[in-house]
Task: structure prediction
Amino acid sequence: MFALCKYSVSLCQSFLAYIRFFFILQGPNMFLYFFYSLEIFKELLEQLGMKDNISKDFKLTLKDYLIVEENFMEIKQSVPWRYFRKLMALNRTARNTVGQGCQSNQRDDNNSVHPLDVVCVLLHCSDHLLQQEIVSKMSMCQFAVPLLLPAGDGTYCTLMLGAMRDIVKRWRPHSLADSKGLMEDNVVNVSMPTFSFVRLGKTKLSKSKILNQVLSQDQQHLDFFIHDNMEGGNIERKISNGLVEMSWYFPSGSDSILEPIAVTNLRGNLESNLNQFSFLSRVSTAVFIFTESIGEREIRILSKCDNSSTKYYFILSPSPRIHVRKKEYEKFKTALSGKGEIIKKEETENDSDFQKKIIQVIQSSITRDCKRIKIQDMEQQTSEPYLRVDELYEELLTAKDFAGKITKEIKDVIQYKKETMILQGDLWRQISKLEKEMCARRNQTTTDSEEHPSELKRQLLTLREKQFAHHLPPGIQHFIEDFANLSHEEKPYYLKCIKSDLDSVSRETRLALREKHSSQKDPCKKQEQHQLDQKISDSSLGIEHFLREMGQIYESENFISKEKGIKGENAQIISKLPGIAADILLDGFPLELIDGDASNIPMQWITDILQEVDTKTGGRCRMRVITVLGVQGTGKSTLLNTMFGLQFPVASGRCTRGAFMNLIRVGSNLKKKMGCDFILVIDTEGLRAPELASLEGSYEHDKELATLVVRFSDVTIVNMDMKNTIGEEGILKIVIHSLLIMKKGNKKLNCQFVHQKVPDPSTQEELMRDKNTFQEMLDKMTADTATVAGKPGISRFSDLVEFSIDEDHWYVPNMLIGGLPMASISIDYSERIFKLKKHLINIIKQHKPINAPLGIKEFISWIDRLCEAVKRENPVYSSTPSGGPKYGT
Ligand SMILES: Nc1nc2c(ncn2[C@@H]2O[C@H](COP(=O)(O)OP(=O)(O)OP(=O)(O)O)[C@@H](O)[C@H]2O)c(=O)[nH]1
Ligand SMILES: *[C@@H]1O[C@H](CO)[C@@H](O)[C@H](O)[C@H]1NC(C)=O
Ligand SMILES: *[C@@H]1O[C@H](CO)[C@@H](O)[C@H](O)[C@H]1NC(C)=O
Ligand SMILES: *[C@@H]1O[C@H](CO)[C@@H](O)[C@H](O)[C@H]1NC(C)=O
Ligand SMILES: *[C@@H]1O[C@H](CO)[C@@H](O)[C@H](O)[C@H]1NC(C)=O
Ligand SMILES: *[C@@H]1O[C@H](CO)[C@@H](O)[C@H](O)[C@H]1NC(C)=O
Ligand SMILES: *[C@@H]1O[C@H](CO)[C@@H](O)[C@H](O)[C@H]1NC(C)=O
Ligand SMILES: *[C@@H]1O[C@H](CO)[C@@H](O)[C@H](O)[C@H]1NC(C)=O
Ligand SMILES: [Mg+2]
Result:
């Protein structure tokens, strides 16, 4: 019997708790039930090919997903994993798992597994961060997310609070309807009325269908909850009975529901899931109990409905089998009085009328002082042994504790940045400027050229010494120590905790700023927009700032130790940092390559990190570089995240600054064909809208950034928003310019143009016409730019890079269908991004014989050379040669 315990430690503990809890209280029948459930769970794991992944050390992690594989939809893999990959690619049909019962590819309906079972198994086999990712993506696709996840053996339930912490929603409450303002918050931190739907015995009426209708309101109909009529929805559920799902309705200001509401749906019969029922009773504003009869059983249940602040609605639907006797009905009604009501569904009443009735009940329950609860406060309702919280694990708590020590010091972001992020402020900006000047002067043969370099070098040393001499502020000191000392397993949680804390701190400031801005619209918008941009950027604080500061500390330490042979007091810990940064990069964490504020690369820091990556991956790793470039806010980061499952930050407003890199492994089946082991994906800062281009050298900044990244990429994805054709020309010019200079080198490049938010033109003719127009524009701009740059003989875009308008030009439809906040993801979007991904892989394959991929060492020296080149060329761009561009002070 105890051999079972090797299954997992937590299972074993639960088993012991179970013996105490049930054997004594409930007798041996429940004890047998435990073994029965466990057996079913084991069978299912086996059937789905996940039996090895349930134990703690073999859980699936995000890292497992960061791999490019060929035909990944077809290759042999477990159903839950396949579901997960579709979810990450935002495939709204991911839940259709019919015919994937066993690991083989043959369709075998008898072996099919219910989609909810698949979700449960997937969550059981994932680590915490992956669970968070899964739940976030589910919510993005408007799938209901698990609130209470029953353990495989049914002994306890887990409140998935931590898993939901990443979900952020925006909505417009009634109070802001006039000002068009928006609220934005973490879904676990929104206080809202909760409505629970449970079933007693068998009923024909589908809760899930009704809930879908309630949540869809006037929008297009969406299937938030899986119901019988969906493919796979009628397969027998094996382990997901007892699952409580949750979904939300967020108002857009003009709808009949005025504030956010949550609905929950208990799967399975209420009688066998009394624990979940009692939990829902405590947290809900109203509970809807679906039943077909009124009798002894219902009265027994009613006696458990004892929470005075919760209303209970018994939904009585007619059944030919059961006849409700009048006497019992009356008796029940009396017992119910004060606690709730009976709502009868008449035989003649059709579904849509009935749904309206339910919606009305919900609407009338939302009163000014009805019960509201935050998901994060539901934790307080989990004191019973059968309820656990997914955050209360030791490794999580330590990480959270450490993170909290740093973030709780942050009261005012701007102030905090000034006090803590010292090295990356003015000092680093001045250093960047000096470095630029040094590069620019290096090749000049003016008279004072002998003196200048040494003078500049002296200045550089002074600045680095200043950096070196700074005492580390406590925030940074803690961060570096934690970063170096926390275990490899704890680190991702630690970073995640800091990130989410910082997100909520800067969210408030950002919202406040935006609100202030939207309320005062006047003609001189240009300047104001720019100021807002600047303010948002000043008051944004993320992990990248901490890592950037760390990079500067490393750089100054290195510089001083090289020049003067002095070591700082933290030298030992500092020397370990690149290795650790390499680890987290390999774990799928994005690292800053180009600092967007100083528009410079901390060369020593990046070099040493990449060197470590090289060492850790066994050396001689070859990689290809894919970069995305485009006007700000056009969905660049979203595109990369969807395509490769990455974690680049996504938000409205100028979000990405500088350039971030992420490493993705190439699967063994593709290594040979693609000729590389890694793909380096680079996400860049959005180029500024044209109306801002003239302001404070931002055009130069954009150009410099673009030139740099275009040149070290093998494939550049140029992302454009169809609405913004002026912005389009601006960015095309920049790209063409970069490529034109690039021409000097002999690296063969490829360029993909992506027009986002454009539906496919309706006819083939129209499509051809659009493409031709685009090609003409591209060629004309190329020719013009080439003439200006004094390079006649280049008249077509394809003279610069490989380009075919048929293959390398994409229309991507709008990702969202319907208006926010209840918009769902378009299937076409995910389909098209998937095609683009395949195309990129093919391009890299074709490139293999043309030019060899770079090894990491070569890549480092390539960046170095490019950087110098760009710095040297920079004065060429600048209209004011002496001053040079100034950005973001
Ligand atoms: N409606 C709609 N919204 C989108 C689409 N793609 C992305 N978004 C949203 O647009 C916002 C900006 O997306 P990001 O991916 O951060 O855009 P970005 O180009 O990386 O932005 P910057 O890095 O700031 O330049 C996010 O709120 C996305 O959810 C789309 O196809 N349609
Ligand atoms: C499941 O665990 C096995 C053994 O630990 C591992 O090899 C496999 O990669 C895991 N499955 C997935 C999909 O990662
Ligand atoms: C599925 O089950 C049905 C009856 O239960 C049987 O007739 C059919 O042959 C089975 N199909 C397969 C592919 O096993
Ligand atoms: C009702 O629920 C609230 C929590 O929402 C709880 O504090 C209270 O004790 C419950 N009342 C009863 C009678 O169970
Ligand atoms: C339901 O019945 C109402 C009349 O009671 C009718 O107006 C409505 O069209 C019906 N809806 C459907 C979907 O049949
Ligand atoms: C100076 O310029 C020449 C060509 O103009 C180039 O070959 C050389 O590498 C440059 N020197 C430095 C130090 O950049
Ligand atoms: C939670 O919401 C409150 C307002 O209801 C806000 O003050 C607080 O900052 C939020 N906390 C987090 C962590 O988002
Ligand atoms: C989305 O999922 C469906 C079924 O689950 C599948 O047929 C389709 O190929 C998937 N699409 C993409 C782009 O992966
Ligand atoms: Mg971005």
User: Anything to note?
Assistant: Residues 108, 110 surround 2-acetamido-2-deoxy-beta-D-glucopyranose (ligand 3) (CB under 6 Å). Residues 1-10, 101-107, 875-889 have pLDDT under 50 and may be disordered. The radius of gyration is 30 Å.
